[in-house]
């Protein structure tokens, strides 16, 4: 697997991280700075800022605006993770203690809020109102998705529910990253739409692969126990495929009747899914999204960034963590 | 006490409330709509949108933009209240159950986040980037203030700490409301600064009077137990004045040594403060802020909105809830 597409944007990513660090400011509370430092050092792959640079560079968007947008997008992502981890009671993310593992719920809520504020400020500093509206709309899509997931009964085996959820959770921000960076560079609506589709499709693929890795990944690299989604009542695409092709399986029937809380049975179901064709089917579906993403950017095949965008798309289905 | 200044903006306030209600949308979760409805029906005085209309009308800002800004400001205010009540564990606000009294912490966090997103979207829809930046900056000031208060030791008797806190908590959003509405109407920087000062000063006065009412108000109208700030370790201006003039008072000494958790002694201190000159001194200080606010708007004394702005300023120190 080649990740050379990261190379041309490495310097930009460093600038994004610097700008994110600078958001703590000197006039804010030292504990807040420490928290921000902790969150930033936890790192992550910075996939979203990478999309911003590749898409923006393709249409000659000013570099500084892309740094600002990249920081806004990653800060928004970080803010939602902080509140997510609090809500789920997660103590680890990427193998590093979450904020709520060390801080009170109150401090964690407020730190997330602070990050929202900073993300909004950065988005405003890109000096482009349609981008700001897109940013605010994406925030509400993400939060509405989380609320829907929370209120929904657990253990739901339903494709529509699943697709809505992964769009809100992941694809919406990928889509926004690609679209916003393109909007800075060009007013051509056809081009903007193509890049929006690219972002959407790789975002859907990214989350499907995350959900596949929950079954197939090593705990050490994925950073959470294998099969943890299902054990938490979250039915993802591999489980849906398995249920569709094994309607008479005992554990599938149990799950459909709301029995996701039966850990022993669900662990059995995880094993059945792992050794089934459902994993391959879900991976194929992710690949179909990647194909659509590649179709969308074909018109730009002569651009210097084209190969990098292709590389990023392939990386998303080939990654192992 | 005259509140006739509310009359000319009544219709605008109704439009603001309609726009806020519309933010729940049809594509969002029904429970979220119910929560928003609950929060809106809890009402409040809508002081911030009132400032927006009075300031904006004075400089002929387009009515629709003021409705949008008013809804953005009130939505931001509501979002911070939702997270505040969660953090403080408050079960009542204005005599009505808070969201966290009925919902899980998780749902309350996300509802606050949703309101932040909607507030940001409304602010963006005012179609004016400097306003958007001001909005994002104000959000971070508010949240940073809450974080500072949370991390600070309780029972601190210090003016600087107090003034910083009430600026972040209250005056910053009043200031923003007046400034942003003026910015929509005029590019004159002197005028903008005058209105910013007006908003700041009435905001400081508003919070000082809130803190006075915590000692002097009726529980039924204020909506929380008398003296509740001090019993929670929050030392406000009346207590600071009392401590400064009674350094040898036993309860003051206890408070200074961190003894705010001694409920019996603090209830005694509340009574001492109630019957002392500290209440009058704090009220006088609020009045001084009002004088500064009135000074700031004198240049506009021929405007049709001038008397209403004067009325609003007076109302803030004369109100009893």
Please give a structural write-up.
The structure is a homodimer of 321-residue chains. Chain A is 73% helix and 1% strand. Chain A is an all-alpha fold and 321 residues long. Chain A has a single domain (4-318), classed as Farnesyl Diphosphate Synthase. Chain A has a two-stranded antiparallel ribbon. Chain A is globular, with a radius of gyration of 20 Å. At the A-B interface, helix 4, helix 6 and helix 7 of A face helix 4, helix 6 and helix 7 of B.
Short description, anyone?
The first copy, chain A, has helices at 10-22, 30-41, 47-58, 63-88, 99-102, 105-125, 129-151, 159-185, 189-216, 219-222, 228-231, 237-245, 250-256, 263-274, 278-297, 306-318; strands spanning 92-93, 96-97.
CATH architecture of chain A: Orthogonal Bundle
Structural class of chain A: mainly alpha
Q: Under the CATH scheme, which class of chain A?
A: Mainly Alpha
Largest sheet of chain A: 2 strands, antiparallel
Mean pLDDT of chain A: 90
- The main sheet of chain A orders its strands as 1-2
